[in-house]
Amino acid sequence: MIGARGSIATCVAYGLAGLRDGLLEPIGIATARGPLADLDWAPWETFVLGGHDVCRRSVSESAAELVRHGILTSDLVVASAPDAAAFEARVRPGILDEPDVGFADLDPRASRNGALEPRAQIEQVVRDLTAFRAENALDAVVVVNLASTEAHRAERPEWADLAAFESALQEGRMQPASVLYAYAAFQCGAAYVNFTPSRGSSLPALRELAMQRGLPHCGSDGKTGETLVKTALAPMFAARALRVLAWQGYNMLGNRDGEVLSEPAHRESKLRNKGEAVRAILNDPELHSHVGIDYVPSLQDWKTAWDFIHFEGFLGARMSLQFTWSGSDSALAAPLVLDLVRLSELALRRGEAGVLEHTACYFKAPLNGGTHDFHAQFGRLIEYGHRASKPARTGR
Amino acid sequence: MIGARGSIATCVAYGLAGLRDGLLEPIGIATARGPLADLDWAPWETFVLGGHDVCRRSVSESAAELVRHGILTSDLVVASAPDAAAFEARVRPGILDEPDVGFADLDPRASRNGALEPRAQIEQVVRDLTAFRAENALDAVVVVNLASTEAHRAERPEWADLAAFESALQEGRMQPASVLYAYAAFQCGAAYVNFTPSRGSSLPALRELAMQRGLPHCGSDGKTGETLVKTALAPMFAARALRVLAWQGYNMLGNRDGEVLSEPAHRESKLRNKGEAVRAILNDPELHSHVGIDYVPSLQDWKTAWDFIHFEGFLGARMSLQFTWSGSDSALAAPLVLDLVRLSELALRRGEAGVLEHTACYFKAPLNGGTHDFHAQFGRLIEYGHRASKPARTGR
Amino acid sequence: MIGARGSIATCVAYGLAGLRDGLLEPIGIATARGPLADLDWAPWETFVLGGHDVCRRSVSESAAELVRHGILTSDLVVASAPDAAAFEARVRPGILDEPDVGFADLDPRASRNGALEPRAQIEQVVRDLTAFRAENALDAVVVVNLASTEAHRAERPEWADLAAFESALQEGRMQPASVLYAYAAFQCGAAYVNFTPSRGSSLPALRELAMQRGLPHCGSDGKTGETLVKTALAPMFAARALRVLAWQGYNMLGNRDGEVLSEPAHRESKLRNKGEAVRAILNDPELHSHVGIDYVPSLQDWKTAWDFIHFEGFLGARMSLQFTWSGSDSALAAPLVLDLVRLSELALRRGEAGVLEHTACYFKAPLNGGTHDFHAQFGRLIEYGHRASKPARTGR
Amino acid sequence: MIGARGSIATCVAYGLAGLRDGLLEPIGIATARGPLADLDWAPWETFVLGGHDVCRRSVSESAAELVRHGILTSDLVVASAPDAAAFEARVRPGILDEPDVGFADLDPRASRNGALEPRAQIEQVVRDLTAFRAENALDAVVVVNLASTEAHRAERPEWADLAAFESALQEGRMQPASVLYAYAAFQCGAAYVNFTPSRGSSLPALRELAMQRGLPHCGSDGKTGETLVKTALAPMFAARALRVLAWQGYNMLGNRDGEVLSEPAHRESKLRNKGEAVRAILNDPELHSHVGIDYVPSLQDWKTAWDFIHFEGFLGARMSLQFTWSGSDSALAAPLVLDLVRLSELALRRGEAGVLEHTACYFKAPLNGGTHDFHAQFGRLIEYGHRASKPARTGR
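Above: the input entities. Below: the C-alpha cells describing the complete assembly.
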C-alpha cells in the first residue's frame, strides 16, 4: 500500500486483522457477501500487508486518531496491536512527489528519495518490493495506491508510449510519484491498483508495459461516496426520460485528504473525475453541473455532501431531489481495497493482462472508460464472476 | 380512463393535446425519448380519450385548479380547450365503490350505478366501452384505472378462479369497482392497466379471464416518486454489501389522493406496496423500515417526501443517506400513463396475452412480482424493446 | 436524580466528574459560559450526586453503552470511575410507576415499592432523601426527575388542591410516581425539577405545597433538540408576518426513551408538549401541524429529526424551509440539568418560592406557561441574572 | 425605485396594486400584520411609484417572466395592468454604473448618462426626482435602491467627509451610481433606502449630508432569506452555550441577481455581508465559516440554500443541524421594501434624521452596525413602534 500510514491503509490493516480474528463482519466487502462471495478468492489468512509512506507518524498513531474520530473502536485497536506492529515493520520510506514539499511530518528519507534521479527512485521501489515478496514468501504482489491526491500534471508527449517514457527516464526527467510506483510494480511482476485520481498506470506508456509483462491493473479514483450515489441515481432520470436541469454537488471533508484538496492544483485532479460521470450518464454534455469540495476540519474523517438535482418533468413541471450523504471515507474505502486486491490476485492467477474492465464499478474514472452507470458497471462485475467461477476447460 | 376528471387524467388530456400541437416536449415519456423511442408506437394523433368518473366537476375545472397549483400553464389550457371539451363529452358516470360514499361532489348517477347489482354494473361499463369504440372507430381500447385508491379488501375465496367469481356475480355479491371495470374491459376485448393500488385485474379470476380472451394487462400502483427513488438507490447498498439498519420514509401530499389516503382503510392499500420493495431488494425481511403518509393540504399536488437511510459500513461505522423528493405527482404520472397505453396497444397488436411483465418498472407492485430493483426492471423493458423491434418472422 | 442509571443521569455524573478534573470544557452549560457565567453559582466541587432508579443495571454499564454509542469517551469513563462508583453507591431503589410493569431489567425492590400504599411510598422516598442530606452534610437538596416518560393520566379532581390530594393519599389512591417524588421532595425541604413530560409538581395540589413550604420548583420536559430549534425559528416567521401553512416534524430516536415512547400511552404525554409551541408562537390555533416520534433502534442515543415548514409569502408565493437535526439527546440534556440544579440551588439560597419562571427557556411546557419563543424566554433568564447579581439590599 | 424594471420593483408595483384592490393579503408586511400594524402608517392608496432603470425591457415584460416563473399570478397581472402602465410611464433612464457595461438590453440613454460628468449625473437625477414630486403632488419622497449589486470598490479618501467628496465631484472623479443616487436624493429632501450591498449612503460623506439636511436613511442589503434564517438560529447556539465548529452555507440562485453575482467583483460585495453575521453573533472571529453563491439558471427567481452547522455539545459530542431554504427572493423582498418605505415616510414626518437604527432587522449589514441577532433587532423595531405610537407631547 502506497500511503501505508494514511487513514485508508490503517483501516485496511486493522480491518483485515479484525476479519481474521472474527471480530468484524465483512460488511462493505462484495467479495465476501452477496452474489460474488462463492468465487475462489484468496483467503484473508494469506494476506501480508506492507507499504510505503512519506510521513513519519506510525500506523498506531493513525489508529489512535481514527478511534478519537469514531471510525475504529478501541477494542479492535487493542486486539489487533500485534498485527499492526508487524505491518508497521514492513512499511518503507516512500518517494516524495515533487510539488508536495512542505508537509508537516515528512520523513526526511522520503524527501531524499524525492530528490533522486527517476531511475534511482524506481530502483529503490523495486528493491523494496522484491524484498517484501521474498521475505514473506508470497505467490503474488498487488501494489495499491492510497496516497493523497497528487498535484495535477498536464499531458506530456513522453507518456505516449513506453519507448518515449523510458528515454525520458534515461534523461532524468522527473515523473509523478504515482507513475514511478506503477512502473516499479510492473517491473516486479506485481499487479497495480490506483485508488486515487493521480496519474498512476493510466499513461499509455505504462499500459504498454503492463501488456508486455502480462500484468493486470485498474483504477482510477475509488468511488466511495457522493459519486457512488450520483451514479446510482442518474440512470433513474435517464430511464424515466426526465430532463435534468442542474446537478449541484457540495462536498465537505475534514481529514488530510480534505486538507490536500484545499490546494487548487490537487483539487483539479479530483474535480475532473467527479464532474464527468453525471453528464455522461445523462448524455448531456451541456448539463449545468457543479461539484465543490470544501475543507471543514471539524468533520475529520466524516465526509458530508449535499447534492441538489433540479429537473423537469412532463408539462414543464419543475421538481427537485436533494440528498445529504454522511459517511466515513476511510471505512467506505477500506473494504473496496480488500475487494480490489482479491480481484487483482485472482486476475494474476488467471493470467489476465491489462486493464481489469470488470472493476469499473469501483472507480470514478475507470481506466478504459465505459458507462458510469453504477448498476451497469456492477452487472459487468457479476458477469465476470459467472465466467470466473466456471471450471477451466480441459487442455488449458 | 377511470377517474377521468382527476388530476392525472387531466394532465394526460392536456398533455396529449400539447404533444399533438407541438406545445410540449415529450419529457418523462420513455417511449418518445431515449433507447425505446424508435419502436413502432401508436402516434399521438391516433389517440382518442374517454372515461368514467364518479365526480361531477368538469375536466376544465380540474385544469383550472392545476393551473393555480403551478402544474399546468394557462397557455396550454387555453390552447387545448377544444380537445378538452371533446374529451369531457366522452366521459360517462362511473360506478361508485361501496365504501366511498360521502364525497363532496359525487355525481348522483355514479351513486345510482354503485347501488346496482354487480352484473348490471358490468353491463353498464360494457355498454359504455362498446359505444366508445364504435363511435370513434377504434382499432384498440386500453382501460386505465386512475381513480383514487379504494378501501383495502381482505382476500375472498370467490376471487380464486373465474368460475367462483362468476358464481359470486350471479349471486349478486358486491365487488370492488376496480375489479368490475377490469372484468368489463376484458369482456370488451380491451387491455387493462391498473395504475392504482386497488385490486383491479390482480385477482386470479381476472388473470384467468385475460388469458382466456388473449388480452394483455398490467399493474399495480404507478411508481412515480419516492418509491422510484428507493428502488433506484437500494440496489446500490446491496451491491456494495453495506448493511442497511433502518429505512424510514415520510411522505406528505395535499391533493385528493392525500385526502383519500388520510383514511386508514385506503391508506393500508398504499402502504403495503411502499414498504415491501426495499426489504425485497436488500434481501432482509427483518429490516427496520417505516413508511408514513400524511395529508398536508397546503402542498396541493406537490408531494414532498423525506427518506432517512441508516446504514453500517466496514468496521462498524454508522453512516446515513437522506433525501428530500419534491415533485408533482400528476405531472410524473401522466407520461407513465401515456407510455403504458402505448405498451398495451403494442401488446394487443402483437397478440400478447396476460401480464405484461416487461412493464414492471412502472409499478410499485408488479402483477407477477419479480425484482423491485428499478434498474433491473428497466433492463427488461429495454430487452423487450429489442425483441419487439425485430421484423416479424416469415409465416407468422 | 430520579432515573439515576439512565443515559442523562449517567452523562451528568461523568460530565460533572470531568468538569471537576478539568477533563471537560463546560460546553452547553449556560451558567458557565456566556452572559450568566459570573453569578454566584454553586461550584462543581460542592455537588454530591445521588438518586433513585427502578432498573438494576449499574451506572457503569450505562456508561459502557454510551461509550459504544460514541457519546462518552473511554478516557473520561476510565478517569471518572471512582466518582461513578461513589455515585452508584448512593442510588436507591425507586418506585415503579403502575403502568410500567414488564420492563426487562426491573429491580424487584422497585416493584415492591410500586405495590406499596402511596403514603408508604412517600415515606420511603423521604427517608432516602433525609439520609442523603445527612450523610453528605448538604446545605441544599435538588430533586431532578430524569426518569422515562410516564403513561399519560387524565386530570383528576383530587389534584385540584392540597387538601383533596392528601385525602386521596389517606384513602390509598395510587398516584403517578413523578407526583409522589415531588411530594416527598417538598416534604424534605428540597427543590424539584421536572425534566420529563410526566405530571410531577405541575398539579395545583403540589404547587400549593411548594408555596406553603417556600420551596422552588420548575418544569416540565427539557427543551433539548427539535423543539428548541422550532421555538428559535418560529418567531422569525411571526416577526416577518409570513403565513405558515404547515409545520410537520418527524422525530426518530433509538434509546430507551424511544422505546418507551413507542407505546401510545407514553407517547401522548410527549406529543402534547411538542405540538403546542409552534401554534402558540405563530398565534394560529388552526395551524396544520404534525409531530411524529418513531423508534429506530439503530440510532441509539442519536436523535434525528426532520422538520418541514411550508409557508406563504407576499403575492401568494409558496416557499419552504426544512431542517434536519442530528444530536445526542443525553449530551444535550446533561448540561441543562447542571444549569437547572444551579438555578434551583441559587433560588433556595435566595428564598424564592414557587415556580421559577425564569427557567422557561429550559422546558417544552413551562409550568407557568408564557411565551414559547425561545429568545424571549432566554431574555427573561438574562434579566433574572441581572437581578440576582445585584448585592442584597441592607436590612434584608 | 432604482432598478424599477427589475424583479423586486415589479413585485412591489403589482403587489401594491393588488393590496389596494383587495386582491392580495398583506402577507410578509410587518407594518400591516402583527404588533406594528396599528401605527400611523401611510396608507397604500397614497403611494405613487416611479423610478430609474438602465435596462429597456418594460415592467410588463418583467411581470410576464415572473408569471412564467410562478411568482406572480396571471390574474393579478391582468387586473393590475393599468397601474403597471402608469408606473412604467414614470420610469426614467438611469445612470449606468461604470463597470457594468456590456449588459444585453441596456437603454442607450442610461449609457449616455453613465458617461456624463458626475455633477451632471446628479443634476439629471435631481431633475427627475423634483419633477416626480411636483407632478404627483407628493408630501414625501423615498428613494429605494433595488438595482443589481454593483462591483465592489475599495475605500477612497474622498469618501471620508462631505467637503472631500464634493471636491472630488468638482474634479469630475467618477462615483458608483448608488452613491450618486443617494447624493441626489438628499439634495431633493428625499429619504434613501439601500436594499443592496452597494455603497449607497454608507459613505461618511453622505451620512454627513443626511444629517445636514435632517433626512433619514437606512441600509444595506435586504435580509430576505438564508441570512435571515442564520441570524434567527445562531442566537440559539449562543444562548445554549454550544460550540459551533463550522457553519457552511451554499446558495444557488438563477435570476439576474444570480447572473450578476457570478462575476467575482460583484460577488465580493455580497459575500462580505453574508459571512460576518454568524461570527459576530457567536462571538467567534475564528469560526470556520464559508458562504458560497452559485448561479443555477434553471432556478430562475427561486433561491435555494443549504446550510450545514457542525457543533459540539457537552462531553465533546459532535452534532449537526442542516437546513434547506427554498424561497422566491423577489416575493420575500417586495414586502420588506413596502415596510421600509412606510418606516422612512414616518421618519420624515417625525423629523428623524440620520440612520434609522430601528430598521436593522431588515438588513444584512445595518448602517450603524449593532447586533446581527434577528430577534434582538426585531425587539428594537417593536420598541420604536411603542415610542412612535405615543401621542406627541404638548408644545412640540
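Note for the figure: Residues 392-396 of chain B have pLDDT under 50 and may be disordered.
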